[in-house]
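Hi team,

As requested, here is the filled-out complex form for the D-galactaro-1,5-lactone run. I kept the field names the same as last time so the parser does not choke. Let me know if anything looks off before we queue the next batch.

— J.
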Amino acid sequence: MKKVALTGAAGQLGRVLRKALLERGTNLRSAAGTKPLEPLVDGEDVMHGDLREPAVVDRLLSGVDVLIHMAGTSVERPLPEIIENNLRALVEVYEGARRHGVKRIVFASSNHAIGMHSVESKLGLDCDFRPDGFYGLSKMWGEGLARLYWDKHGIESVCIRIGSCIEKPTDFRHLSTWLGFDDLMQLIDRSINAPDIGFEVVWGVSANTRSYWDNAGAARLGYEPRQNAEDYAADIVGKPNPIDATGQHYQGGSFASYDYSRTN
Ligand code: 15L
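And here is what came back:
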């Protein structure tokens, strides 16, 4: 059975993944950043530490086949924080993967790597990067790093450009960007187990009628989303849109309008 490690296990999505992977009987090691994790089951393999430290990465990756890397800054923050958590730590993780012969990394990328595309565009995976801030830029960089480590070192990566992964859609943008938890789990399962992936980028999105993204490439992984935000549309359409007028033009929503100063 594959040994799987999960970083960011105390985070919003990490908590969902940790519980669901344990329930599936995954041979899992869960890692948090600063605070120790309370074991959810007897004898659970848990650890914590700063991923910028090679010794911590060694503890994380020893004996691991697949890493699900969810750790890092997950919203727009000042650049120095993003550089430490999303650039420096990611290099340490990939270097650790080289040292330990980790076969595959599932990298939590984000829709914010392309967030300045118009909501009128339907994007394939060959679309241009158009980050909507330093956070989105760090995810673009992470995808580049993943590509580098496949091309040069043979470490496989699945980069999941996660949309809005929440229990259920609550606002208008989510009708396009939602990734339901069942679909998330299917996507993670396929990302762990699909053979011979090499380097792959996939939209982390459910089968939303109004999706901004054409997920044809996900077929290579065998990902077949079953959830659709449209099932919640009646509760959402007609409600005030919480995103401001600028943000409503861009796929990144409020991330795109944050600190927006363009006038032409
Ligand atoms: C993300 O990348 C964020 O981590 C998350 O907090 C949400 O904002 C999500 O994107 C989204 O676009 O809804």
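Two things worth flagging: The chain has one domain: 3-257. The pocket of D-galactaro-1,5-lactone is lined by residues 74-75, 110-112, 162, 164, 177 (CB under 6 Å).

Thanks,
J.
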